[in-house]
Amino acid sequence: MLDLLVRGGEVVTPGGVGRWDVAVQGEKIVAVGPLGDLAREAGRIIDATGKIVIPGGVEPHTHLAHLITMQPDEPTLTLGPEEDTRGMVFGGTTTHVDFAYVRPGTTIAQALEQRSARWKGNSYNDYAFHVTLQGELPIPLFDQMQDAISEGFPTFKVFTVDVLPPHPKRHGYKLDFGRIQLAMEKTARHGGLMVVHAEDHDIVQFMYQKLREEKQTEGWKLPLVHNKLSESLAFRRAIGVAKHTGAAIYFVHTSAQEGVEAVAEARANGLPIYAETLHHYASFTQEDYKTPRGFCYHTYPSLKGPEDREALWGGLLHGAVSTSATDEYPTTLELKLRGQNLENVTGGNLGAEARVGIMFTEGVAKRGMSLERFVDVTSTNAAKILGLYPRKGALLPGSDADIVLIDPSIKRKLTMADFHVSDYSPWENWPIAGWPVTTILRGKVVVENGKLLGSTSDGKLQHRKIGSEILGRPRA
Ligand SMILES: [Zn+2]
Percent of the chain beyond pLDDT 70? Predict the structure, then answer.
């Protein structure tokens, strides 16, 4: 006897798209196909006629319950998982990956334990953590990476840059390239993957200083600091170290044409290099900073020009960009707009709730993206690259029953009634063609007909293992 049958939708699977049924028993998918006969034995049937049925979204990049460092004299935290993941399940995202921060004085195990405890019982969807390595970490600490990988935490985030200027109350972000090389040697040897925020430290810090001296401190000049040359240099330097060590890289928030080109070139040479971009970067440009709520669209590195936006879409449509993420950093509108100058604009985005729906509108409805590619860039590729596949990221027998129904007939502008996290959304008034309407997490219907049926005890920590094919060649 089946627990649930999702019947008659346009189902997107790794083997193609068809008018099929998805059968669920307990937390797992047990069959996908024309299953008409099974309907008689299903405990519950969801009629998906006219809907598109996809695997639950995988959000690879969030900063929840995270220290906001742009204004170090008034430290506060971003909203936590109990608030932000409510939006994610409404928006069709069933798994998110946040970060555990390792700075001098902490071990990797302590950082993971502390973040796992913060999330336990507080997330509406499933979750995992990248390990972030920051500052002048003692060299022996890198020996802990092997254990973290074997315990299911195989991804390590590094910054090649201090994103903000130095401040006595602000910890550094950057890991030096010597330690980055060491981390890459460890991931290459033990089955891990490097997650890299790549900007050129010298260029970024020099530009902060130069513009400060010239008194050009308006926030909309951020693209002069976090600029295209910086992305180009840093992507290529990191790829050089990866090639030397045999490591695989996942570049977060690719923002410029130069980043897309560097990744495309490396992939053409067979290197396991992957790029993420953000739906914000693919939808807005630096001109939007000058609008009244323009910093709502900002994260680091900055928005760029229209040619960069087109290059990101080229990558999303044709392969050089593997995933869409948010760099989620949920705050109130007041907090997001608190800083207005170059050195204190609040970074990070609010938009994990909108990610799947915006990618459907902008990709499938507006740019002719195939449904398979749409699922790749919102779910499957992140699951593969980060080691969640095929438990997550696919509608296959044996996969977790994380299932989302999109209604492609919804055509209107978004309003605040569509959002469930903060007092604003950067996506208010954005015209959509299709939106997620039903979300199922491991067999449990958590959102249906605009109602939240899930709870913060639903989300579970996901241990991960990355397939060797992902680490050897560009395979997502
Ligand atoms: Zn981030």
Answer: 100
Q: How far apart are the first and last CA of the chain?
A: 36
CA of 62 relative to ligand 1 center, distance in Å: 6
Angstrom distances, CA of residue 239 to CA of 131, 135, 358, 361 = 20, 21, 30, 33
Whether residue 167 contacts residue 343, with contact meaning beta carbons closer than 8 Å, is answered with no
Distance 407 CA to ligand 1 centre (A): 30
On the question of pLDDT at 162 being above 90, the answer is yes
Separation of CA 327 and ligand 1 centre (Å)? 5
C-alpha 197 – ligand 1 centre gap (Å)? 8
Both tokens assigned to 30: 């047990």
Asked if residues 31 and 38 have their Cβ atoms less than 8 Å apart, the reply is yes
Q: What is the pLDDT of residues 385-418, one digit of tens each?
A: 999 999 999 999 999 999 999 999 999 999 999 9
Question: What global pTM score does this model have?
Answer: 0.98
Rg (CA), the chain: 21
User: What spacing in Å lies between the alpha carbon of 389 and ligand 1's midpoint?
Assistant: 22
Expressed in angstroms and rounded, the spacing between residue 182 Cα and the centre of ligand 1 is: 22
The alpha carbon of 127 is separated from its chain's Cα centroid by a whole number of angstroms, namely 12
How far, in Å, is the centroid of ligand 1 from the Cα of 157? 9
Q: Which residues contact 313 (CB under 8 A, 6 or more apart)?
A: 282, 367
What is the Å distance from ligand 1's center to 228 Cα? 18
At a CB cut-off of 8 Å and minimum separation 6, what does 339 contact? 70, 71, 219, 295, 345, 346
Torsion angle in degrees (nearest 10) through CA of 156, 194, 173, 236: 180
Q: How far apart are CA 16 and CA 24, in angstroms?
A: 19
Q: How close is the Cα of 26 to the center of ligand 1, in Å?
A: 34
Q: What average pLDDT does this structure show over 283-289?
A: 98
